[in-house]
Each structure stands twice: as C-alpha cells, then as structure tokens.
Specification:
Elements: H1 3-21, H2 35-41, E1 44-47, H3 59-76, E2 80-82, H4 84-98, H5 111-129, E3 133-135, H6 148-160, H7 165-172
Parallel strand pairs: 1-2, 1-3
Helix pairs in contact: 4-5
Length: about 170
C-alpha cells in the first residue's frame, strides 16, 4: 500500500506533462477563409496598388506588368476584377473625407483613422463594384547568396551530360 500514492502521483504527473505537451490549434484568422467558403463567397476581387520596397527604382512599369499578370490569373479563375487605379481612387476619396491618416501634431500614423479609412474604402468598393475581397500585392527585397561556381558546374553537367533516364527514353522513341 505504500507504493500506491507514489504511483498515483506519478500517473498524475505523467498526465499533466502529456497535457502540456499538446499544442493547441491556432485560432482562426479573420483574414482567411476555408477554400470552400472562399470559392462560394468571393466573386469580385479588387487589387490594391503594388507595394514595393522604398529603394526600388522605377516601380511603375513593374507594377503594371504584375497587375496585368494578376488580373489575367484571376479572370482565368472566373473572378471579376477591379483594377488598382479604381481601388486607389476610392481609397483617396475615403482618405480626403477622413482628413488623412496621419496625426497632424506628431506626423505619425493614426491607427484609428487609418482603420476607418480602410473600412470606408472597402464599404465604397462593395457598394460600387460588389467587391468581396481585396488583394494586396507586394514585392519584398530579400538577400540571397549565389554560389556561382556550383551553379555553373550544375548547368554544364546538365548541358553536356544528359544522364537522366527520361532523356534517353525521349531520344530512343523518336
């Protein structure tokens, strides 16, 4: 009988540790929908202007090219698309109605005013174009290491030594 309380304490400790080891599921984000919900609810998507890094040189042609590609993909997917120029115009109207989103005394972003402007812009987009979602495209600059010698070696090996079985099969069938 002396070992029974020790066994119970050990069992309780093991159960407690097992319960602590279970990772709780992430709370659902209000920015995402399940795939089925997305496809069922979203018919029209507005595109916000492309956000680029501050040191990005001449972003206008890049933004135009990316928007053209994004619009094509969305339209091919069956969505109606509202251009970034329409989105920017509606956002500017909402911004002028609110008096901007920077604090006039500090010059810093006023989160409450900014949120109110975005909410008004989304409302106006929904009223005018029946927009269900807004896409915020952006380009991010990242540092990347390039291993030039290794890359050249891999290209030369692939170029002059076609060893994969599929290449031999493709040549033998013709």
């Amino acid at each position: 009988m002396k070992h029974q309380p020790t066994a119970i304490v050990g069992l309780l400790f093991a159960l407690l540790m097992a319960g602590c080891a279970i990772e709780p599921p992430e709370p659902p984000s209000h920015f995402t929908l399940a795939h089925d919900d997305f496809y069922a609810k979203v018919r029209t998507i507005a595109i916000a202007p492309l956000a680029t890094p501050p040191d990005f040189e001449n972003p206008t042609p890049v933004a135009a090219k990316f928007e053209m590609l994004i619009v094509k993909i969305l339209r091919d997917g069956g969505y109606s698309v509202v251009s970034s120029t329409e989105y920017a115009a509606i956002l500017d109207q909402a911004k002028s109605r609110q008096g901007g989103y920077f604090d006039p005394l500090t010059g810093k972003l006023d989160e409450a005013k900014y949120d109110a402007i975005l909410k008004a812009a989304r409302h106006d987009l929904s009223a005018k174009f029946k927009v269900d979602a807004v896409l915020y495209p952006s380009i991010l600059a990242v540092d990347a290491k390039w291993l030039t010698k290794r890359l050249i070696g891999m290209v030369q090996q692939t170029r002059y030594n076609p060893s994969p079985a599929w290449s031999r099969k493709a040549w033998s069938s013709s």
